[in-house]
Write a structure and sequence with these properties.
single chain, 149 residues, alpha/beta, D-tyrosyl-trna(Tyr) Deacylase, Chain: A, two-stranded antiparallel ribbon, 3 helices, 8 strands
């Protein structure tokens, strides 16, 4: 799994002109699911995301996590995080999990976060979405379950 995590003062997802998910202060997470990913990778990623110390403490240092702050997560599936552009100019997506395999893991991730007490909003899996992210900082973190970065 891969994730692009952005600290946000507010984010929302719109599908065909209607807001399908919206949060206030918290994290905007774009999540890519790779062929072969399992619930183990989902749990690792979700635990890592909610415990990242990327929110400021009283001294302005990044020492607090989403759990510490009681923030929200807007989780959006994004298979293009596995776009491979090493050859040519058109991305290849052969490493991305097929939708019928990715959707259950995406739903598992949402439930896992909810079970931790996190308010989670989402887009619509597989839909064309317009995502608005008010990146706070800006703070953007890349995370990969295989720890390639």
């Amino acid at each position: 799994m891969r994730a692009v995590i952005q600290r946000t003062t507010g984010s929302k997802v719109t599908v065909q002109g209607e807001i399908t998910g919206q949060i206030n202060r918290g994290l905007m997470v774009l999540l890519g699911i790779k062929k072969g990913d399992t619930e183990k990778e989902a749990e690792y990623m979700m635990d890592k995301i909610v415990h990242l110390r990327i929110f400021p403490d009283e001294e302005g240092k990044m020492n607090r996590s989403l759990i510490d702050n009681g923030g929200e997560i807007l989780l959006v599936s994004q298979f293009t995080l596995y776009g491979d552009v090493r050859k040519g100019r058109r991305p290849g997506f052969s490493e991305a999990a097929l939708p019928e395999l990715a959707l259950p893991l995406f739903e598992y991730s949402v439930k896992y976060l909810q079970d931790l007490g996190i308010k989670v909003a989402t887009g619509i899996f597989g839909a064309e979405m317009l995502v608005r992210i008010d990146n706070d900082g800006p703070v953007t973190i890349l995370l990969d379950s295989e720890k390639v970065f």
